[in-house]
Design a protein that fits this description.
This protein has 223 residues and is of the alpha+beta class. The chain has helices at 43-48, 107-120, 129-139, 151-158, 167-171; strands spanning 3-9, 18-26, 29-39, 55-56, 62-73, 77-84, 87-92, 96-101, 199-200, 207-208. 25% of the residues are buried.
Length: 223
């Protein structure tokens, strides 16, 4: 499965307790895991030798504590807004948001990947069980025996988890309306020419899969 992953500080650089975000973009969707970090020599830590809720991470100069995690599948994204050249605000489901803070050296690759995946996975308005599974994952306080393991490992392990989907959770995946077509993020000279061109129904505006003869939302024939 094609994927891109990276870790970056997503809090201001001058704060004592930093927030670090680990991202994975794959063919399913957008995933993030955040943790709080404090330096080993931070005053309280230096005096006591520990800090409640934080773990000394071997081979590093900091202690860390889990913060939160989230996931939005591509077909449940409702909007993508460029807050800055290196920051995307992604919203999805009924009220989920993920802010992607993008390293400069990955910017072109990430924008191309987001463009490609949103074209391949047009929005689905109706509630969806797969999307609901990731909401359960988001809200699960139990991150396993090692909450500091890589995010990709957590994603892989979810395939072996049997979750009960509450009707209220399923309803969270319903989109309030069909999103407007997503505009390409990558500059024209950096777009992946191998990616399919997005097409939309002239009757209702819904995205349609390449090769489709009828709109999956309103049933109208596609020209």
């Amino acid at each position: 499965m094609e994927s891109i992953s990276w870790i970056t500080q997503t809090s201001p650089p001058d704060v004592m307790t930093g927030i670090y975000s680990e991202y994975v973009l794959n063919e399913q969707g957008v995933f993030v895991k955040r943790e709080k970090r404090v330096p080993k020599n931070e005053p309280l830590t230096a005096i006591t030798g520990f800090r409640v809720g934080y773990k000394l991470v071997s081979g590093t100069d900091y202690r860390a504590a889990p913060f939160d995690r989230n996931a939005i599948l591509w077909y449940k994204i409702t909007s993508i807004i460029a807050n800055s050249p290196n920051e995307l605000l992604i919203t999805g489901n009924s009220h989920d948001t993920i802010v992607l803070v993008i390293p400069e050296d990955l910017r072109s690759r990430i924008l191309q990947f987001v463009d490609k995946m949103t074209q391949l996975h047009p929005p689905k308005v109706q509630p969806d069980e797969q999307a609901a599974i990731w909401i359960c994952w988001r809200d699960d306080d139990d991150w396993g025996d090692d909450p500091y393991r890589p995010l990709q490992d957590m994603i892989d392990e979810e395939a072996d988890v049997d979750r009960f989907i509450d009707p209220d959770v399923l309803e969270e995946t319903r989109l309030s309306q069909m999103p407007a077509p997503f505009k390409p993020l990558a500059p024209a000279d950096q777009r992946d020419s191998s990616s399919p061109t997005a097409k939309f129904c002239s009757a209702c505006g819904a995205s349609v899969q390449p090769g489709s003869r009828f709109c999956s939302q309103c049933g109208q024939p596609l020209s």
